[in-house]
Write a structure and sequence with these properties.
Proton glutamate symport protein, about 0% strand
Length: about 400
Amino acid sequence: MKKFPLHWQILLALILGILYGSFLGEYSGYVDWMGDVFLRALKMIIIPLILSSIISGVTGIGTAENLGRLGLKTLVYYISTSLLAIVTGLMFVNLLKPGVGADLGLSRQVGELGLVQQSFGQILINIIPTNIFEAFSQASMLSIIFFAILFGFFINLASEKSRTFLTTFFDATFEVMMKITMFIIRFAPFGVFGIVAFQVSQSESIGVLAQSMGIYMLTVFLGLSVHSMITLPLITRFIGHVNPLKHFKAVTTPLLTAFSTSSSSATLPLTIQAVENKSGVSNKISSFTLPLGATINMDGTALYECVAAMFIAQAYGIELSFIQQAIVVITALLASIGAAGIPMAGLVMISVILTAVGLPLEGLGLILAVDRILDMFRTATNVWSDTCGAVVIAKSEGESLRV
């Protein structure tokens, strides 16, 4: 018998949670523990996962010699497009405000965000930890991400013996952490059931919940559409001097594969093949830019993480200041470096952002049910950005393309 897909399990858990909370709300305490256990398990893996994933991603760039002209162009493109994607998502979530005014049973008292009392300059200074182990214990995510990027960069500058050992160690650690993560995610339906049942039992209107989730999905769709159909084609056309429509037709197969599998890593062989054989990019460019892009270039994921964090803040009635939204943008950009190219990887990354800005992880229960369908769209956006980057960089290197 065919296995019941996880995303359908989560959707079923959401429906059952709504029904349980609506009709048996007074007994929600009997199932609330499932949500607590699931969230505690997520919190347990956040720090080791983000540390190993970012270090593994940065060391994957290669030795310092690789960070020459080609490497610099690639990193500038990836950082720029991810930042543009996040800002696009931030614009739409502030415009549509999917969580504002929604009575989702989330109005419980939330502690004052630590970022409120700090200036932007002080926040940037505090990114550098005085004690990294203290940063680990306090889950200071920006400090941890900064340390991971720094550590990964200097691994590439170490002697060959040390570089090989540490790269292997953190790659292996990341692989183990992903296995633990996927094991925990298998229990997501139970966690969603417990979280949603409790939240609905505290809510007065199920219709508002459905309406808010619909607007939230629309916000993500609009952000991804603008970035993939306007921003990236404009970059491809006017910076890369490449016909974006012809290039899109050339990479249709990997885009459809990315959409159906929700995995940019699994799509990578098809992406390389299409970019080389149909768009005409040389193997020298594609073999460097595309594997690196599948690791650290997550435009769609970064946009989604930003929108999701803002939506959860709005649902909890938390007004984020400009500085706090800037921290969401910075954290989403840095966390996207460590987002693995596998289904539901963004779920863990959004946990990092929520922790960084002090938002409650319980808000994950709101977005888990629709995560799978959004994952398909954001993964396709990730791969589309990778391919656009490959042709833009190839053109800047003087290559003659077929698109």
